[in-house]
Amino acid sequence: MKYISSCLVACAVAAVSAPAAAVNTVMLDFTSATAGAPLPAGYGNPNAAADFTWTGVDVWGNGATAAVNNSIYSGNGNVLIAAVGGQTISQVKFDYFTYFDSGITTSPTTNAWSLLDGSNTLFASGTLEATGGPVNTDKQDVKSFVYDLTPGLYSAVTLTFSNDTAMGFDNFSVTAVPEPETYALMLAGLGVVGFVARRRKTK
Q1: pTM for the full model?
Q2: CATH tag for 22-178 (out of 1.20.1440.230, 2.60.40.180, 3.30.1490.480, 2.60.120.200)
Q3: How far is the C-alpha of 72 from the C-alpha of 39, rounded, in Å?
């Protein structure tokens, strides 16, 4: 009986301690990316929160001002964010801005992004207006976006970039949490610990 109790305690401790470090956030500021080149599909992988697959997304470089460099821009690109390790995505956060682009000759030009789930259902979207001007000047109309998703529902989301390349992104942050089953396991472990402790006390 003593052996069984010890096994129960060991299993319970494992169940309780497993999710202790499972709430994870990763923040990408793109300072380690190669300026003036497309982001590789594996940039930001692996990490404790999510894997990233970048399509048609470039890093500012080639003479961009310091304020714009080490940020990303895209025309009709996207990033697929997939939670890792049995987690789900609970929050997506980033800064977005516009900048003057010599390729823009009319005013204003609408730049847009959209946040979608795995079924391409729209969560949120945003737009900025850009005007024609010198190439690669400082960030204009910087905004911060935070979106909280229902925990346990979404293992992947997609951020799409549309229209021209005059919209930039920086400080890209994703938070992932354990799936509900993990918390259930933790509660079960606590219950076993309590049961064994009470049994020992009655002896």
Answers
A1: 0.73
A2: 2.60.120.200
A3: 8
